[in-house]
Amino acid sequence: MRIRAALLFFCFSLTCAATGGGAPAAVATEQKVTSNGLALTPPMGWSSWNNFAENINETLLMETIDAMATNGMRDAGYQYINLDDGWQHYKGNRRDHPLEADPVKFPHGIRYLSDYAHSKGLKLGIYSGPGQMTCAGYTGSEGHEKEDAALFASWGIDHLKYDSCCSHKDAPKAVVQAIFGTMSKALLAQKHGIVFHACHCGWSDIWEWAAGLGINHWRIGQDISDDFDYPGNREGYYFDILDMIDRGVGLEKYAGPGHWNDYDMMVVGLKGKSADLVGAGASNVEYRTHFSLWAMVNSPLLASADLRHLDSDTLETLTNTEIIALNQDPLGKPAQRVRSAGGLEVFAKELADGSMAVALLNRGSPTADMTFNVHKDFNLPWTRYQVRDLWRHKDLGIYDIPYTAEVISHEARVFRISEIKADR
Ligand code: GAL
Question: Is the distance from the beta carbon of residue 403 to the nearest atom of ligand 1 less than 6 Å?
Answer without folding.
Answer: no
